[in-house]
Amino acid sequence: MQNENKLGVMPIKKLIWDMSLPIIASMLVQALYNIVDSVFVSWVSEASLTAVSLAFPAQNLMISLSAGTAVGVNALMGRALGAKQQKRADTVAVNGLFLAFVGFLLCAVLGLSLSDLFFRSQTDVEEIVQMGNQYLHIVMGCSIGLFGQMMLERLLQGTGHSVLSMYTQGAGALINLILDPVFIFLFDLGVAGAAIATVTGQICACVFALVLNLKKNPEIHLVFRGFQPDWRIIGSIYAIGLPSVVMMAIGSVMTFLMNKILITYHSARETAATAFGIYFKLNSFVFMPVFGLNNGVIPIIAYNYGAQQRGRMIETIKRSALYASCVMILGMAIFQIVPGTLLKIFKATDTMMAVGIPALRIISLSFCLAGACIALGGSFQALGKSIYSLIVSFIRQLVLLIPAAFVLAQIGHNSGNDNLVWWCYPIAEIFSLGVTLLCYRRLYRTLISKLPLNGSEGA
Fold first, then answer.
1. In 364-459, alpha helices (H)
2. Which of 134, 162, 241, 455 could make an SS bond with 192 (beta carbons 3.0 to 4.6 A apart)?
3. Cβ atoms 294, 317 nearer than 8 A
4. The pLDDT of residue 84
């Protein structure tokens, strides 16, 4: 730490793109993998795609735990580096890897023991249940690669080495893309083959990220000899990260309940749930760049908070909100103009097209508001106020979206207009933006405004 970290000195406009573009690129590759993975599965059968779609809430719950923990580690480590506390930064990093291993063990046990109950609570189609069990048993039982990759990549990003994290994500996604057709078609393993390709890519990326952290990341030192968990550090990690875990897990609950509503009240039943799953695959091309921008911005805000640089923090937040909104508006335009073309990628049947086209157009209206919500949520996480993000997410998805979907689905079922259910997304997004702005106003008054403008005031 003899030289000043670029997070504290590089011009913000250049720094945001320097930190974010590699992450955005790797996340776009990841989004491509998600879509291609589902496309290959859809070529097997619609039932196969339905099984993978219904598995998404459980799979996302696992991702929520790994990503939320990494958020806590990233923010805590960034603040320690900004305050020039090298030993504390190293301790945070090593304890983060310990938590990643514990998370893997937990998800493996849950996936292997509760998978069948999970699928039978959503559908009574035996073929879908059996294929879904095969998929979840593999992706959750072998999730060590996911947890390790997630944490190790965040260590690279949190110390300013976003390009290196791009290499690891890109390598994992590329391996996955290559192995998908091999396992799915050549070995005729179907959805199980897709799962095997997924975990193989994750494990390879995890190993690659570990090597890069040990060899190419001088900002932190990963020393495992004589390691013992530091429960105070772990408590601090989850004080920041647990709201993020819960916030993302709420998305899993929302998806599960939405699938139940669609299968119960939509005339197309499983096809409607599958169309909803396709929407989540497609929207990753819109949301992943914004999440990549967010992941690049969080270390900048956290570092400059530790360095007491209010001016740099505010400029970062403003620019990230603007950039995120631009990306989301572009995504909305694409969903409005060519929804049918997007659905045809998945060999959509006529029924799927009839359900999916209005769904994509209506849901995407919420995109233009979501960008600012995501960007401001990143500032909450970076400043240790993830509870605000949790409040917004809870209100949006469980207090507003699901009840609205339930009511609209029943009205649509009784009136013969199934498309009404999709309007729950724009309705929920309008209110969540208002709540987000109120939370940011409070954060600015109580924390940000009290910092010196450039780190020198009051020194």
1. 367-382, 386-394, 402-415, 424-446
2. 134
3. no
4. 87
Mean pLDDT of 198-215: 96
**pLDDT of residue 2 exceeding 60:** no
> Length of the chain in residues, anyone?
459
Amino acid identity, position 112: L
Report the pLDDT value the prediction gives residue 455, as an integer from 0 to 100. 63
Q: Are 222 and 93 in contact (CB under 8 A)?
A: yes
The identity of residue 416, as a single letter, is: G
Average pLDDT of span 113-121: 96
CB atoms within 10 A of CB 441: 10
Q: Write down the mean pLDDT value for the chain.
A: 91
Cβ neighbours for 243, distance < 8 A, ≥ 6 positions apart:
68, 386, 387, 389, 390
For residue 354, what are its two tokens? 């009839």
pLDDT digits (tens, 9 = 90+) for 429-457: 999 999 999 999 999 999 999 888 876 54
Residues 342, 343, 346, 347: is their CA dihedral positive or negative? negative
User: What gap in Å lies between CA 419 and CA 210, rounded to an integer?
Assistant: 47
Cα-flanking dihedrals φ and ψ of residue 244, to 5°? -70, -40
pTM score, two decimals? 0.84
- In angstroms, how far is the first alpha carbon of the chain from the final one? 21
Distance, CA of 164 to CA of 171 (rounded, Å): 11
At residue 142, φ and ψ (nearest 5 deg) are -115, 35
Q: Is the dihedral of CA 366, 367, 369, 373 positive or negative?
A: positive
- DSSP symbol at 453: S
Q: Are 48 and 41 in contact (CB under 8 A)?
A: yes
Q: Which two tokens stand for residue 70?
A: 């990494």
> How far is residue 159's CA from residue 161's CA, in Å, rounded to a whole number?
6
Taking alpha carbons only, the member of 2, 12, 8 closest to residue 315 is: 12
**Are 255 and 57 contacting, i.e. CB atoms less than 8 angstroms apart?**
yes
Of the CA atoms within 13 Å of residue 140, those in its CB half-sphere come to 26
The span from the CA of 279 to the CA of 165, in Å, is 27
One-character DSSP codes across 80-100: HHHTT-HHHHHHHHHHHHHHH
> In sequence order, what DSSP letters do the residues of 285-303 get, joined into one string?
HHHHHHHHHHHHHHHHHHH
Residue 273 contacts residue 418 (beta carbons within 8 Å): no
- Tell me how far apart the alpha carbons of residues 324 and 151 are, in angstroms, rounded to a whole number: 24
| Amino acid (one-letter) located at 356 | G
